[in-house]
Fold this protein.
Amino acid sequence: MDTTASRILLDATSIPASKGGVARFIIGLLAGLESTGTLIMVVAKRADLPALSAAAPGHRYIVAPPSVSVRPLRLLWEQVGLPALAVRQGARVIHSPHYTFPLLSRTVSVVTLHDATFFSSPEAHSTLKGVFFRRWIRWAANRATRLVAVSRATADEVARYVPRLASPIAVAYLGVDAGVFSPPTPAAVREVRSSIGLSIDQPYVAFLGTMEPRKNIPALLAAHAALRAEDAAATPVLVLSGSRGWDAATNDALDRIAELPFAERSVIEAGYLPLELLSAFLGGAELVVYPSLGEGFGLPVLEAMSSGTAVLTTRRLAIPEVGGEAVAYSEPDAESLTVALRELLADDGRRAALAAYGLARSRQFTWAECARVYTDAYATAAGTVGR
């Protein structure tokens, strides 16, 4: 049957090799669309098809050319090959889920915007990355048929910095898969402790995310060091999971820690943990700390809440939309983080209450609800054809 939904083409070729947040968004959205009865076409790299089709087998998957694995060639294919593919497949709408989209395509477009800190906090990004994404956000805001942001804060920031919008910005909060992120079993926590070099019952504080400037890792390291200086025995190990970014200050600090004998380290850089270990990593922690200077959404905060652990974070941009009153907040400077960490680590009851509140709140963020916003955006965009 030739329905509008079946003639949507989602470009999933932007999924990075690390399978990080972009992958979790696309997989979650596809699962949400399928659960609400909306089946679409999806073009993706061959290596990504097993994960996509396993999560949402009802969609029709198309293999992208091998060249899209090289970023410059992917961007070129997006401008030329993707519009041609849309025409061949009879697509009425192209959904570009990560900022960039075909500029000259005759097929109408829905574009997802994840973050506006490229405008509000340019120092938190490399110069090239900032220029690239500011340009694409402006183009999307001026030319896309429909825009969808992942939070109200992101939508408001885009409207602030790009006042000439082609259309209103819809807001579709990201979801969390409770089947992937849920309170872990003791056995799962033991497994993840072992994988990161901790003893079977060693307490730890967790951070999850790319270690780039806006994640504010130097302030977290300083706060943790201050607590260790006060009482080393009572301060859990700090475990950082995620890939390193381009922040020289963070990388230099981590290099100095790595040079210490393992027995003397109070900070462990666990690297990029596989998805199947993340819930146990987050849920097994005494506390998850996310001291970000600004987020378009803050998916690690939601995933930690869903994993049943207390979260300490900041009130920057979209994070309060996610955490509400179910997380603890601190100013992002080292002194404030030290005070907040000290208080929370000393109060088992408050951490348990935050964990319970966070778990309950996380269940409000579903991929099905996210998908409903996109279904409306697809229908609205398709309705403009021929006008």
Summary: The longest helix spans residues 71-89.
